[in-house]
Batch of 2 targets.
Target 1
Amino acid sequence: MPSVTLARLVLIEARRGALPWLALAAVAASLALAAFLSQVALTESRALQLAIVASAARACAVFFLAAHVASSLVRELSDKGLELMLSLPLPRSAQYLGRLAGFSACGAALAVVLAAPLLLWAPPAAVVLWGLSLALECALVAAAALFFTMSLGQLVAGLSATAGLYVLSRTIASVQAIASSPLAEDSTAHDIARWAVDAVALLLPRLDSVTRTEWLLYGAPSLQAYAAAIAGLLAYIALLAAAGLFDFHRESF
């Protein structure tokens, strides 16, 4: 199948690039940081190490993957490789979904490598659930980076849009809590701001409910809560893929 072949080419490109070395460097740095924290922490050193390493692993996986997707697409656009691919008798949907599958597989590999050190502090079952959630979160980031970079055609613009979506999705729950605070002044402007924040929240994935560090510290979530969080990720990945396919079909390049 063309999509499988293209996904394989994306994986080969990632293996030959700097992505594996960046992942290994992130693992080494996180282990070094954990060893340092074990020496300076007075109490709860294990929990502190686990929380810091998990947060660093999630941030590194997301950033590395977004940068790899954006740089790979921009290089393909500048080298006219995309135009060459479009000249082949392959449907555009197969080309787009093949790239998305390949980048998502890169995200899954990053999630496995960066989650492995957590086995030193957390139960295997919790690490597996956390790692699966991180892999799907990386797939969402790959879909967002693919969509924005393909649409905007620039590295900085694609990365900035992806980072903006991710950071806002991670923090929107806190923004809603602040907007709904009973200590805030009751006024028309405040009500409009709160409604605006709620409206924006409806358009964003709830990344604050996935890949949570507390799963590693205090035990895995309930099956119902975990399934709901994963379903939300899958739905938004499908939405981004549909938007990207629509935009890719109308682009002339």
Target 2
Amino acid sequence: MLLLHRTSGEKREESTPAEQVIAQIKDRQTEGYQEIVITGVEVGSYNDNGFKLTDLLKRILSETDIPRLRLSSLQPPEITTELLNLWQNPRLCRHFHLSLQSGCDSVLERMNRRYSTADYAHAVTSVRNAIPDAAITTDIIVGFPGETDDKFENKLSIL
């Protein structure tokens, strides 16, 4: 597993430099690893001096031979056409973990999420249209303070 974002004392989050990510993948490959999982805090907001997540994935695919590459978690607004186009490469696992957390926009807002249930639905549709055989997983918080039975039912209907 490679950590792209980590929290630091001075900054909220910090991206691992692309050179270091590539070197770590090559090291793991030499050790016999067959799959790398890219993970971290807000993976989709990776930024190494203007070098974005899609740039990093392109570079990993061109500079390494690791057979399988997986992203651990993305937020709905991070699902873009440019990102999905990378899945034409069979080395990228046909798996998307999209954070949902709640099926109620007011709860998502209280959670300080930067997306809505409509954004989530749009992201799922985009993935399905681009990669019909992709597995989509999520995570959900049940019993968030202030979640009513109706808000819980909204969550179930989205699922």
